[in-house]
Structures are given as structure tokens and as C-alpha cells.
Amino acid sequence: MGIANLRTHICRAAWIALAGLLVISLRAQTPASPPPAPAAAQLPATPSFTPNLLRGFTPQSSTVEAAWEERFLALPQPASLRQSLQVLTAQPHMAGTPADRANAEYVAGVFRASGWSTRIVRYLAWLPYPHLVRVTAISNHRQLLPNYEAPITGDRFSAMSSAVIGFNAYSPSGDVTAPVVYVNYGLPEDYAVLKQDGISVRGDIVLARYGKSYRGIKAQLAAVHGAVGCLLYSDPNDDGFHAGLAYPQGAWRPASGIQRGSILNNNYPGAPLKPGQAPPAWEAAAWKAALPTIPTAPLSWQAAAPILEALAGRPAPQAWQGGLPVTYHFGGTLQVQAHIHLVMSYKYRTIWDVIGTMRGRHAGEVLIGNHRDAWTFGAVDPNSGTMVLLALARGLGHLYAQGWRPRRTIKLCSWDAEEFALIGSTDYAERHTPGLRRNAVAYFNLDEGDYGPNFTPGAVPSLRRLIYSVARTVPAPPVTTTGSVFPLSGCAAQTVFQAWSCASAAQPAAAPSMTAPAAAPAASTLPRINVIGGGSDFEPFLDHVGIATADLSFSGPYGVYHSLYDDFHYFQTEADPHFDYGVACTRVLGLLTLRMADARLLPLDLPDYAQAIMNYLQAEQTRAANTPAASLNWARVTAAAEGLERAAVNFTTRAEAALNASAAHPHANAANLARFNQTLAGFEQTLLHHRGLPGRPFYKNLIFAPNITNGYSTARLPGLAQRLREKNWAGVSVQLRYLYQALENATTRLKITR
């Protein structure tokens, strides 16, 4: 059917209906023009509760802050969140499509109507759309495998034909026929098992199940081992009926659900080769290396079943057996082949970032970001986060109209083309790196912001204490038994912190896109805060620019990731039926933003960060035991980490003394306090190395990066860990030197701040 397979040619009547819905929604939710600023600040009354002294605030400013926070907590409403999500998910809106542009205009309209100075940034990105995706199974007969989901009774969205077919973005075009080899998850250890059994995939097409790592790494490893094609499928053991009831009876992936997604190698996010741009040699080389080399396509488990049923050869190991009622075999014989025929349409397409700004009274910027584009309807991923971003815009705009003025500038960022390669956020971060390094104090990210009752934040160590503090303030959302969301057994929680603590020992399965392992809690009584990993728009801000970063979500069962079924009907029946968790997410994000924007002394905890670095270093030294790396100069790096711990404690003592002094003499101590804030905001930058990580020059953070063999989970001390895994002992020595220099520089920076 050619380009018709893209299914993005929306009929004129549908577009008229969508435009009408946008206009009606904007009129209903927001005033026609930004609210006028009052002539004088109207300070709120004393809060009804007695606030504890907030970190970074004086006693007086803490009381004022608590009063504004109490007002904000009352503002988010389920009905408003629901209406936002309904508008955002009215049509599929893949990056670069007319529906994507319509959603950008809608977001900008809400920002402007809420009093934010707003601009839409238009630019070009190298985006592939599928012209033809055809996969055929060949055994006793030829069977064309479906690349689109079946409609579900009661879900009118699933019957719409305007969403893109199942495809993997950045796959090359190709036309190959070859035997199929089942490779489990397609991880390095899986290929080691195949090699042990004398099985090669050279010249074959591999069949790998989704999960355990980023799909682009699966395609890359298949090519490295000589495969000529790659098929990725969703096994019911991972996110289908073995995990729980499948949609529409439950939240898990139904038989025909297809996980779309990019397979661009994640060594370099973004798309640098734009018209008129002359990237440096390293950037051009990284981009070229990131492009996949073999045709790759996704399948549902229903489509993969005929292949798995027909595979012959030796049975795969028990650990490789999946959820289908057949014995999984390695295959690799002419008895079962596959034909992959892909025609991809690569071209520069227009995408749109939306940036809303609320100016602060002093230096510094707090950024809050969420991507807007989706493979299909994107109700959970990402527009459950977008609806929260819009609720935040309205709430802070309401406070502004009542007289509140942020101490620091706040920027709301609606990114585009995240699904392809983090393009919108990366482009912004690269264009504004100098300004961000001068002004940004924190970046808060939302992606799959709301799909269940479990609070699952990720953050750098310096933000953990702030997150705990906010979670103790925000009321716990009411529990529900509607759909697949169940109350937390035995939890009588009054706050998000209490509910989080109760559930932390038994988190439900996370979405396949965000599977970063959790950090050990700071104390046995504290719930987990994930170590921030990869797979979303926080990457360029943390790993390239060097900004303290957190990623927020309320999570639960979620099996329709990147499928046609991630729609409004699914969301309101299976994810958050009453939008209560969306309200809780808005409240948490709002208080984090308010405290980071208003605190006189930035609430960043450097002693916690320094202690975490020491823990990571000790773990890597233990891993290096009984290897040649054990004889290297670990003592010097350990001593530098100990020095940083002492300097961080001393710095914090002096900073808090400066804060206390500012309570009595705010103007006389303003410059001194500003120096402490500048050091706090710049701490993450002291942990960058200008050359970047081995083979990944874009990633410059020596403490955190996406795991190079996983893509989603976190590598702690990534350069050092990579060289140890590679048994590159000279490289280990280099990484130890880089760490020593960074820790010494950070320590010096803390000591000289007065």
C-alpha cells in the first residue's frame, strides 16, 4: 500500500473536530488572556498547619513558603487533568505530524493563558517514517505477519486507522530472507550461550524478545554477531497475560499489541546533522556509528507465535522459555525462515518545542520538562506527564496572579521527538549549554508521569532529601479498585511518603522503557529513590550539561507501552481511573518547583552526594579485586573522595550559617549567599570531563550515565565501570585519574567558597 501504511492521512472532518476540541478546551480551562499582575504582592495568610523549617529557608520565609504551598496543593483537580489528557490524546501524534503540531499549539495556548511568556521553537530533525513494513514467516507455507493492532470492543480509539504501523525508527531499508535464530533477550550473555552451544547467527535473522535492555542495543548486538536482520517481539511472560490480565480485562499487553520504538544507538542522543550545520568530527562520527545497519522490525506475540511454534533444532534453555504454550527452540535451520522487507522514508521534518517562562526576581533557573510526541495516542507515555505539566502551569500561574513571585526563573519545556532520539531536549540543551551552566539550578523531568499508585522517583543524590521532604508534605492520593489499580494492602497512608514507604518493598513491574535499578535507601526507614538512568529527556541535562536532575512518576501495571492501545480509554479504565494519582504527581512536582525556585539557599545536599560517590568507588574497587586493576592507585582516588566528604560537610555548615545570617541582615549577606548558591548549582559540573566517556563523547558525567550494554539502567562511575568490564587495565588507570581530578576540583570549589 506504500505510504498509505503510515496511516497519518487524517480525514478533513477529523481535523475540524480536533481543532474544535482544542478551542473548546482552551476556553473552558483557561482565561482568554494572561492574568494581570497585582499592583502589590498579596501575601497569603498564615498556613493552617504549623510548618517545619524548610531546608534553604529562614524561619520567616519558611512560613510564607508553606502558606503558598498550601494554596498550591488545593489547585490541581481531576476534571482538569482529565480534560487535558482527552485533548492531547484525541489523535495519534507522532513527531512531525499535523496532530503533533496541533498539540504544540494547545500546550502553548495553555501556557499563555496561564500567564507564562511562551514561544514555540520550530526546527528540522532527521526523522524516518515507514513506507513499507512487511514480515513474512516461511515454513510449510508463507504467512504474512500483521504489523497493526486489532480493534478492541469498547475502545473506539483502537479502531482508528490513523496511527503509524508497527516499525522501529532508524532501521535501514532492506529486503532479506534468512533462517531464524531465537536469541532470548538478545543480550551479550545470550550470545555467549549460543556460542557455547556451537550456534552462530551469521547470515541469519535473529528473533529477540523485548525487555532487559534498550531495543537499539539488541539490534546493534545482532549486527555485531553477523545477523542480516532482527525481529523484536513482546513475549507474554514479560508484559502480557503471564504478568496479569491482558487489556481490556486488565492492564497488560494483549495478543496483537506491538511495541514501536527507536533503535538508534544511544551513544549519541539527538540528530545533529541538520541542514546548514557543520558538526565537529567526533559528533559526525558518533551520529554515523549510532545508525543501525540491519533491517529491524517489531512484532506482537501473536505475530511471533507462528515462528516460535515452527522453530526446530535443540530446545532453548529453561531460562529462555517464554510465555507461549510451545517449547522454544534455537532454530537456525532452513526449516523456518523469515522475509523482512522494509522501505523507510528518511527526510528532514519540522518539529516543535514549546517553552514557557516565568521570570524570577533573582538569578537562577528551574527547568521542568516533558516530551509531548508519542508513537500513537500516548495516554501514559508521555501525555500523562504532559497533563501534569499543564496542571503545574495553571497552578503556578494562579499563584502568580495572587501575588506570588518566584525567586528564580521557572521554565516549562514541552519537548518534541523524544521518541526518536531525545531530539527536542538535546537540541535545546546543546544550543543553550553555556547559559544553562551559568543559570540552571535543577531540571525536573516527567515522562510516563502517571499510570498507577506507586511513587517511583529517580534523582541524583543531592536531590534525595528534598524529594523526601516534599513527599512528607503532599497528601496521599485515595486508593481505587477500578480496573487494574488496586489499593496498597495494609497501607493507611496520610502522605505520599507513607504510601511510598509502605509500597517500596513490593513495587509492581515498571514500564519496559524505564527500568533503572533502585539505589539503596539513605537509611533503613526511607523508601527507595532510583538512581537516575537513561531513556528520557533528562539525559542531556544531567549527562552533558551537568545539572542536578530528578525524574518523577506514579507507576503501576502497564503493558501497552508504545502500542496502539496506549489511549484515553486504556488510561481511564486501567491506569488512573479517577485521575487521583495525576493530582498527587502535580502536587509533588509543584512543591519541588516552588522550593527550588523560592529557597534562599538551594536545597541541594552535597554531603549525601559525596557519600554516594564514596560508596560507588568502594563497590568498583571490590569488583577490581583479584584483577590487575587492584594494583592501581585506588588509594589516591579514595583519599580524594574522603576529602570531598569532609569538604561537603564543612561547606554545608558554612552555607547554613550564611543563610541564618541573611535572616537578620538580608541585604548585607546577599552577595555571600549568592556565592554559596552558585557553588551548589555548579557542583554537578565539577563532575564532568570534557572528553566524555569512552566511546561516548556526548556523555561527560563521570558519576552517572546510561548503562552502555543496557541503555535504560544506570552505570555508576560509568567510565571506570566500563573499562573494568572490558578488562582494559590501562583504561582503568585513565578513568581513575579523571575521577581523582574531578573530585579534587570539586573539593577545591567547596573550600574556596566563602
Can you describe what's shown?
It contains 23 helices and 18 strands. α2 runs antiparallel to α18. 56% of the residues are buried. The model is unreliable at 1-43, 46-51, 481-489 and 507-523 (pLDDT under 50). The chain is α/β, with parallel strands linked by helices and 754 residues long. The chain has three domains: 2-122 and 356-598, Zn peptidases (Aminopeptidase); 126-347, Glucose Oxidase, domain 1, CATH 3.50.30; 606-752, Transcription Elongation Factor S-II, Chain A. Helix content is 39%, strand content 16%. It is globular and about 85 Å long. The strands form three sheets. Strands 1, 2, 4, 5, 6, 8, 9, 10, 11, 12, 13, 14, 15 and 16 form a 14-stranded mixed sheet that branches. A two-stranded parallel sheet has the order 3-7.
